[in-house]
Structure formats: structure tokens, C-alpha cells
Amino acid sequence: MSVVAGFFLLGFLARVIRSDVQFPRSLYQSLTLFLLIAIGLKGGIALRDHATLTLGWQALAVVAMGLVLPLIAFPLLSRFGQLSREDAASIAAHYGSVSVGTYAVSVAMLEAQGIHYEAYFPLFVVLLEMPAIGVGLVLAGLRSEQHSMRDLMHETFCNQGVVVMVGAMLIGYLGGTAVDGIMPFFGGLFQGVLALFLLEMGLLAATRLPEIRATAPFITSFGVVMPLMGASLGGLLALALGFSTGGIALLATLGGSASYIAVPAVMRQALPGANHGLSIAASLAITFPFNVLVGIPLYISAASWLQPGNGGVL
Amino acid sequence: MENTQTKFGLTCASLLILAGAALGVSGLADWGLLTVGLLLFGLCSVQWLRQRGMQAVSLPLARNYHPARTEQ
Q1: Interface residue A215 vs chain B (CB under 8 A)
Q2: Separation between Cα atoms, residue A96 and residue A256, nearest integer Å
Q3: pTM for this predicted structure
Q4: CA gap A91, A95 in Å, rounded
Q5: A223 near A283, Cβ under 8 Å?
Q6: Which residues in chain A are contacts of B40 at CB distance < 8 A?
Q7: What is the mean pLDDT of chain A?
Q8: Of A76, A220, A222, the CB nearest to B43
Q9: What stretch of H or E contains A177?
Q10: Digit-coded pLDDT (tens) for B53-65
């Protein structure tokens, strides 16, 4: 088990045994900003060297994956889970989108194992945030007169994750060598900050766990099986696109992760009748821990098996 | 409704156990997937038994219920 995943377990256990571990809300917000900037900057620097037409095609394929994932999740949720249309659409949107935290853990594990990856992946993280939201709203049968489309668009494209990461990517891309001056802070402290972030995520996950009690067998199964299906799709797509071992593991991670920050904010506004506690609990208390503890090591092993000896391009 | 959900859970758990065991034996991954599958199977089995238990109690009660007899 990786060191950062150990901090997640520590936070989880601390909440389970009712320890009084306190994590200031403002610190959590600061850590989130740090991770978004660090990931964005790194992606921007990598984009300087890899802004080619091929990248455009890869980006289109990744967006297509973001459109397909909620379409896989929705029938499972409505048919087997027998959830209402709004609940199923909301959860499907969560599972079609991505989690920056899960991506950060995957990057940390790849770097700890010395596996290289395409460093421009933050571009795909940003791109994958949005398509699932649109599909989710269509699946819920949302009509434009019901809600202010302007507000929804604003929430979708101007949420913290998208703005900060795109901004940091642009700074990294345009900043040239001047960016190197701040990289010791954002690059060197990445693993330590991620450990603190995961401690808080462990506390949060354990707090959310009781919310799934009513539908525990189904939502737990879905929260484990859907990431595996998404990761398989992501991994195979990455293989088809010719990514390195690390790239396959990262796209599998993105396919297998579920949003717990950006999508909940949009869905709360767009589908006020949906059970938002259930969707956040599923992504945060089931899928996130599963990915951190079991999924990501599995995706990395599978990527190494699919693409043996291909260490990457960077 | 709960029955469909539990059946889905049991099916997923069985698939996870099979996949986890296959991956563990082949050395492709550690036993994490198998552990998750077993935990999920336990959770779904408890739920299934609880549902069966409730049916076992409620069905005979419903069968013996006669409004006329109750009125007397």
C-alpha cells in the first residue's frame, strides 16, 4: 500500500473510532487549491512540448469517453437500482465526470514506482469534468425553462476546479522558464500535501458512510463495479490511442473515478429533487476509497501487463 | 425493489470474487479485489437473509389473517 493511501486509511479509522481529529475547513480548501494549481502547472509545462494535432484527436476521444460513461451508469442505476430518473441521472453524471483527488493519488503512485506518464494529462482531467454533466441533465429530462441555463453553464464551466486548473495550465504553458521558480513549491511539496488532503478525505468518507445505509447492497456494488467498468473503458481507449504504461493507468483512473466536488454543485442546482446525499456518499465513501486502496494499484498492474516495458514518453 | 438490488449486489460480488481470485493467482494484482468481493458478498448475503426472514414472518401472518375472524 502506498504511503499517501495510508493517510486516507488513518483519517477513515480516526472517524470510525470517534477520535477528535480536527481538520480546519479552510485548510482543506487551501490543499485543494494547491493540488489543482500543482496539477495544472505541471500539465501546462508538458503542453509546451506536446501541443500537436495528435493531442487534439486524443482530447476528442477522451471527451467521447466522458459522454459514454454516464450512458453506461444510467441503465444500471435505473434498472437494477430502481432509482428515480433524477437520482439515476445525477449519480450517472457523478460517475461520468472525474475526481482530481483520485487523479492526484494515481500520479503519486506512478511517480513512487518510477513509471513515466504523459504529463499533459491535466488537460484531459479538465475536459472530462464537463461532458457528463450535460449528459446527466439530458438523462434527467431537464428542460431549459425549468432552470436558468445561464446559472447551470456558469456552474459547469466556472467552477473552482475548472477555473484554477485551466488558469494554472495556461500559466504553465505561457510562463516559459519563469515557471521553474515556483515549481520547487508546487512540485516538491506535492506528495506531502496530498497526504494531508487524503487524511481529510478519509475523515469525510467515514462521515458520509451512514448515508448509504438504506440502499447499501446496491450502491456499494455499483460504487465498486462502475469504476471497474469505467477503468476498463479508459484503459482500452488509452491503449488504442497509443499511450504509455503510465498514460494507460491514468486514463483508467480517470474513467474509474467519480466526481465529488464539481458535479454535486451543478446537480444540486439543476436537480433539486434528487437525493444528493446518496450520490456524494457513493462517490466519496465507496468509489474514492475503493480506487485509492484497490483500484489504482490494479489499474497500474493492468497497464503494465497491457503495455509491458513501455515506460512513457516523458 | 430491495430484492432486485440485492440480486445485483450478489451477482457483482460473485464476479468480483472470481476476478479477484483469477488476478491474484496470476500475480497480476494483489488480493484487494477478492477482499472487496468477499466483503460485498457478506453485506449482500446479510441483506438477502434479512429479506427472506421478513418474508418468512410476514407471509404466514398474512395467510392467517381473516377480517371476519378478527371482528368476532
Answers
A1: yes
A2: 9
A3: 0.84
A4: 6
A5: yes
A6: 217, 220-221, 224
A7: 86
A8: A220
A9: none
A10: 776 666 666 666 6
